[in-house]
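Observation: inputs received (chain + iron/sulfur cluster).
Thought: call the complex predictor directly.
Action: predict_structure
Action Input:
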Amino acid sequence: MAAILHDRLGYRDAALVPAAFAEDLAMDRALELVDGLAAFARAQGRRFGVKLTNTLVVANERGRLPGAQAYLSGAPLHVLAATLLAELDARLPGRLALAGRPGGDVPVSFSAGVERGNAAEVVALGLSPVTVCSDLLKPGGYGRLSGMLRRLADEMRAAGCADLPAWRARAAAVARDAGHASAAAAYAAHLATAPGAAPYAAGAVRKPLKRSGRPLELFDCTSCHLCVTVCPNDAMIRLARPDGLEDRLTRRWQYLCLADLCNDCGNCATFCPDEGAPHRVKPRLHLAGREAAAADSDYRIARAGGVWTADGARADDLVASLLRDLPLPAEETQTEEPQTEEAP
Ligand code: SF4
Ligand code: SF4
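Observation:
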C-alpha cells in the first residue's frame, strides 16, 4: 500500500493508519466471504457482487477538515483499487465476472477515481456498474460525464467495436496477446509503469487553484461561474443583472445560493477564486415555509401575483430585482447559456 501511495504516486503526506487496517477486513477473510456469500446467493437464485472500493483511511495531517482521519478518494484510489482488482482476480481464478472470464459469476462494481482519461479502460475490464464521484466535483461538474462517454465511444469506434461485449472481448484479447493473465492484470501492470502512473501522481493531480486576492462580496465577484458547475446539488445559480441597475451592480452576472438545496459540503468554497465561501457570502435564498433565515446573507423569498419578494437584512430590492428571471418550477426555464464574464 505505502509502496504505491507514497513511493509510486508521491502522496507522502497521506499517512496510512495501521489501526484502520487492523479493524478492517483482511484479504484471506474477504476471499472466504466472497466464496460463502456467492454460494448463498446462488442458492437463493441471486448473485452476490463485490464493490471496489471504499475510501482509504489516512491520517488527517493537512488539517483542512476536522477530525484525526481523512478519507482518500480520486486519482490515488484509482491505482490502489485497480491493483486490488488484479489481485482479487488472481486469487479467485475465473470467479469474477470480468472481461475474458466467461464463467465468472461474481460481478464487480467499481468506484475509484474514474474520469475521462480512464473510463473507457475501466469499462473494458468488464466492471459494472462503473460509477463516478470525485471527478464530478471538479469544474464542469456533471457535464464532465459527456466527455467520458464521448471518449469511450471514440475509442470503441477506432477499435471497430460495435458494442460493450466486443469492447471487453478486445481488452481481454489484447491482454492475453501481451502475456498477461487477464485484462485486469494488464491494467494494473500498466498503472505500475511510470507513464501509466503519471496522471495519478500527486504532482499531476494537486495543481494550485487560482486565487484573485479579492474578498468575496454579497454582489459582484470574479464571475468565473465555478461555484455553479462544481455544486453537486445545483444550489448555486447565476442570474442576469436587470437593465437599469448598472450603477449598483458592476457585473453582468450575479450569483446566489438556493439555500434549501445546499448541504454545506463546501465544494464551491474550495474552487471560488475570491476569498470567501459562496454558499455563505452570496445571497442565500430560502423559500418561505422552509428553514428560518439566520445570517445577514439569508433571504426569505416568496412569489405572489407573478412577482418575487425577498425579505432579508441587506439590499432586499436588489435581490428581488435579480429574482425577476427566476422561474417557478412549473415555468419554462431559460435556455440561453451565458458566457463566463471574466477569468480569475
Ligand atoms: S456548499 Fe452548498 S452551494 Fe456550495 S457546493 Fe456544496 S451544496 Fe453547493
Ligand atoms: S466561484 Fe466565486 S468568484 Fe466564481 S462566480 Fe462563484 S462566487 Fe463568483
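Thought: report the result.
Final Answer: Residues 2-205 form one domain. The chain has two domains: 2-205, 226-325.
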